[in-house]
Amino acid sequence: MRTVLVSAEVSPFAKAGGLADVASALPRALNKLGVDVRVVMPKFRGVDAKTSLEEVARFPVTVGKGYEECTVYRGRLPASEVPVFFLGNDHYFDRAQIYGEGGGDYPDALERFVFLSRGALRLQEELDWQVDIIHVNDWHTSLIPTYLKAGLGPRNARSVLTIHNLAYQGVFPREQAGITGLSDELLAPFEHEGKLNLLRGGILQADLLTTVSPSYAEEILISGEGLEGDLRSRRSDLSGILNGVDYTVWNPHTDRHLWANYSTEDMSGKGENKRQLLLELGLDAEGRAPLVGMISRLAEQKGFDLIMASFERMLSLGIRFVLLGTGSPQIEEFFERAAERYPKQVAALITFSEQWAHRIEAASDIFLMPSRFEPCGLNQMYSLRYGTVPVVRATGGLRDTVHEYDPDTGSGNGFTFTDYSAQEMLSALRRAISLYREDQKEWSRLRDRGMREDHSWEASARKYRYLYEEALATRA
Ligand code: ADP
């Protein structure tokens, strides 16, 4: 089976969130299962420093009424044989950020992703790929299933759309529709509330749909950011496949970003990471206060209003708190202020740092993820492997991966709450902290159980392969 995965983000070349991790780990896992898979993404600034590139094609891509030159380079996903094709156009992609600076998207976002979508299809013709499945991701590549129907790209290919986050739909003024080059008839599925909605068109036109956890797949049929009706109309074509973890990248035993490595056999390194982190960030290292960590886009979705509404109460539980994240200026400012006010108890790293993400996973005792909604969530799974007990709101993928600790049966791998309220969140945190303080043995057992869980990609990649086969079976 020959597949092409197209994504705006692919780790380690360009990453804003979980999409990048999935678009990198899934192809590698598929490749191991014997699926012929290629990846296509934009050639963003700095890509050349991360892989050696070879120019393989040059052609014009239609964008609106004009053409934009596309230079294609081939690289490889690290530690694999999976080829990555980077679509280069400096005007569109040689920019400081992936999507935009200062909050919103770049004003020419539609043009940029029309270029990516049409370019990816043109590339397949240009290099004469006999593709069976085109796997597209989120709104950026949601035009592709329709372009396929319009006769662009490989004939007979089937499309699969994965929704990584329904909150981002790629909504544009109707007047920009000409940029897509599609006829009014083909544009009809993209019409939504008087605007052009790229994700909606993808949902209605892709051959099969997936989202990134079974719970989220159910939740969005009821509350789907305005697209629940459309999703319900495709219910039988929609499935939820949990993302996995790339344990070659997220493994405390081999992780090069850490001060000390550790495993279930010898956990002393975990304590060492905590000591070093507290020291480096100037936090109080006295006593046995639990360190609560967060690594997150600073977005409303992630439950920051709960934290901000109860932050003093949270601190009064006797914790140290470390946050790594960027995003909403108000949230950034809140944590910067908190760190100034409580320099011994709170550290705020307002930046994007792979190294600190790994260090915080290793050093923390508890990982907090009180998301309002969470399609899958990766950090809770990283936390499990790093012996960092997750405290999460039971929604979407968090509900599918974190299960409440039960003192009677000794089962569970974390602490959860259901109502979206600060009180419930604090109560879950309190349960975690009491166990941490009062029963070290039981805490170690809980941690150990989490570390031994297997959330690797293999099982999920098999499900994708099965789904691709299903999509192919619909071919005339
Ligand atoms: P989302 O895709 O909604 O942002 P996920 O939990 O699925 O959430 O994935 C987030 C990914 O981005 C994780 O790999 C996480 O470690 C990473 N991440 C988020 N913010 C930062 C940051 N400031 N620095 C480094 N990594 C980050």
Task: Describe the protein's architecture and organization.
This protein is globular. It has 476 residues and is α/β, with parallel strands linked by helices. The strands form three sheets. It has a nine-stranded mixed beta sheet with strand order 3-4-5-2-1-6-7-11-12, with helices on both faces. A six-stranded parallel beta sheet has the order 15-14-13-16-17-18, sandwiched between helices. Strands 8-10-9 form a three-stranded antiparallel beta sheet. It has two domains: 2-244 and 457-473, Rossmann fold (3-Layer(aba) Sandwich), CATH 3.40.50; 268-452, Rossmann fold (3-Layer(aba) Sandwich), CATH 3.40.50.2000. 37% of the residues lie in helices and 20% in strands. The protein has helices spanning 18-32, 90-93, 109-126, 144-149, 184-187, 198-205, 214-222, 228-233, 268-280, 304-309, 311-315, 329-341, 354-363, 379-385, 396-401, 422-438, 440-452, 457-473; strands spanning 2-6, 36-42, 54-63, 66-76, 83-88, 133-137, 158-163, 171-173, 191-192, 195-197, 208-211, 238-240, 291-298, 320-327, 346-349, 366-369, 389-393, 415-417. The protein has 18 helices and 18 strands. Helix 1 (18-32) crosses helix 18 and helix 9 crosses helix 13 (354-363). Bound molecules: adenosine-5'-diphosphate. Adenosine-5'-diphosphate is lined by residues 17-18, 21, 165, 295-297, 324-326, 352-354, 357, 376-379.
